[in-house]
Amino acid sequence: MDILPKRDTRALIQYFKTFSKEAREQIKYIVMDMSPLFRLVMQTMFPHAHIVADRYHVCRLVDWALERVRKREQKQLVAHSRMLKYNRRILMKNPEKLTESAQIKLLEILRISEDLRRAYGLRLAFRKIFKIYSIPNIERYIQVWLKAVENNHLPEFNNFKVSFISWFPQIVNAFVLPYSNGFTEGCNNNIKVLKRISYGLRHFER
């Protein structure tokens, strides 16, 4: 495990060049977020590796789209803005794990906004991909889900068709292969929390 002070193209290439070409050619899988820059560097430096879009980042894109719909509706539905603001986490939880009172709040939230109801449905539908295991079925399911996104006409979901098509093989790998950056993301979160409670750190070495 290593941490680099910079993440621009030159810094990444220089770092990975410290490993021999033979070593880099033996790398089989690379798990990464959906950054076109990082993908280009990885394809250049590790030509034989299969790139896997990290499941956390893929699912987070869907969660962020739902959150943007909630914020839009919160501004427009002034009479219900407090309910939408203070119960936003209910939308992100597994509905099967909600308490009875939380389920009532969820139903009320979805009742007052059709757009939020559709966005929530798209999020739940996407999460069902975790129960599909074969590559052909996952590919078909993503295509069907993208069609549902298109039919719902939610502006917050407009970018999925472009990003998912561009990253289609890597996203399929995310749900076929058992690899993820879960541990690394946890470490990264701890570092960010430490930086925040320290009011920033002056030097990278620290």
Please describe what this structure looks like.
By secondary structure, the protein is mainly α. The protein has 2 domains: 1-53, no CATH class; 55-176. Helix content is 65%, strand content 4%. It has a two-stranded parallel ribbon. The protein is globular. The relative contact order is 0.12.
In a few lines, what is going on in this structure?
The chain is mainly alpha-helical. The chain has helices spanning 9-16, 21-25, 36-45, 55-76, 81-86, 88-92, 100-112, 114-127, 135-152, 160-166, 168-176, 182-197; strands spanning 29-32, 50-53. It folds into 2 domains: 1-53, no CATH class; 55-176.
Give the strand order of the largest sheet, numbering strands 1, 2, ... along the chain. 1-2
Instruction: Report the biggest beta sheet as strand number plus sense, adding barrel if it closes.
Output: 2 strands, parallel
The domain tally reads 2
Computed over alpha carbons, the radius of gyration is 20 Å
Query: How much β-strand is present in the residues?
Result: under 5%
